Amino acid sequence: MTAYYEVDFLPVSSKKSGDAITLRYGDGVGNEVVHVVDAGFQTTGEDVAKHIRKYYGNKDVIDHVVVTHPDGDHAGGVRQILEEFEVGRLWMLRPWEYAEELLPRFKRFSTVEGLTKRLKEKYPNITKLEEMALEKGVPICEPFLGTSVGEFKVLAPSKNRYLDLVVTSEKTPEEHEGQKALDEAQGGLIAAIKSMVKYVKAKWGEEQFSSEPTSNENEMSVVQYAELAGEKILLTGDAGVESLREAIDNAQGVAGLTLPGLDKVQVPHHGSRRNVSSEILDDLLGDIIFPAPSKGEERFSAVISASKEDEKHPRNSVVRAFQHRGAKVVKTEGSSICFRRNTPQREGWSALEGEPYPEEQEV
Fold first, then answer.
1. pLDDT reported for residue 176
2. Which pLDDT belongs to residue 120?
3. Residues 166-187: pLDDT tens digits?
4. Which of 50, 157, 307, 342 is most enclosed, with most CB atoms within 10 A?
């Protein structure tokens, strides 16, 4: 049982949003764990390292580093962490580790070696992290459903679903090369449509999300849950509806978590409309509250890792949806956000105001 914790959501300063989360927690009698979940882009890694040294007692050892999925806005900064610290365990999924199992599902490859090579080319961020970890002797572990990472339990992905996502991903070698020109043309059309987002005024409780699914790589995200010092904390990475459904379905069996009832929640994928639905949020957070709760009556906190320069994140519809279920929503946007319990107040840090309720949402 942990007696205290601090979890910090650090700003990722870029034109695109990213995730960088650091945690420390302990039992109050000398046993403490430092736990990092993603570290933003490569340029973010140094800021993450400085934060740990400044606020976590000038640590040289990080017990657990989790790479939720292979995108550069999550995995890039982990290079700096591996360079600067002694890392106990690196938790990340590497598709080439399952090349022998996957080979029958890829028609274009006849050898494990050939498939392994191509998968490593398609996922350069985690390929580099693997090289660094092996060179430094850092154990690389699989964060599949049911695994314990420090005090956290992994609620998603399961191995079978992960392998399915690898096979059907747009990044994998099963992609048809002859479709490249058509795909590029379609991509340009989709981008043009996305840039024409419209906003409409909506009443409290009205919700509208995108019908377009998130990427397979986002659905590969490691979803972690822990109860720290009596508070229930969920970290979602860039999980989409499919991954969140798996996490919800396994919460009780894997972690003894009865939903709803969370205290701190990471909003998936920087507040994207493609990663949540009303049904998922009902099951995860509870039904929409009527009438709207007054300020100061929030049931839980929801944090969005978003860059000030990122015009696409977060979406109003997502902010609204979390607020509909009683969340105090806060955003990084250039500032670090710290949730803590039973630790001293940091000098110069103050409580953040929750986001105002958006009267308009995207359609």
1. 43
2. 96
3. 999 998 876 544 444 445 444 5
4. 157
